[in-house]
Known about the structure:
17% of the residues are buried. 37% of the residues lie in helices and 36% in strands. It is globular and about 45 Å long. By secondary structure, the protein is of the alpha+beta class. The chain has a 6-stranded antiparallel sheet.
Amino acid sequence: MAASAIYARISDFSKFEDLVAKLPEEVRSQLGDVKFTADTIVIPHNMLGQITLRVSERVPDKRIALKAENAPVPMFMAINLDAKAPELTEVQTAIDVDIPAMLKPMIGPKIEPMLRQSADKFGEMIANIVKI
């Protein structure tokens, strides 16, 4: 699929509600009670509470970056699009979590797996939406 088509599909998160409804039940159940607006993805988390991912950057056909609000540490996520050919695009999700050095020994081992799991679910969600 062309990068422009993927970007058009994922750049407005409010479209995700309809796309998520088309996913198989087992995939929808894994997403839980995620909410979408044009610029945000709101993810409820058992231990962390509600985390809002808000768009901080949009580069058409290339990248959408998000910054977490209400997260216990600064967290950034991105969806990167790399056009390999006119109808072939590599989609990659990335996460960057900034745990302060003083807190890393105390919370790092506990929070990193939770955030990694959230990032993995985010990547799976994007991959499934792109396939629809």
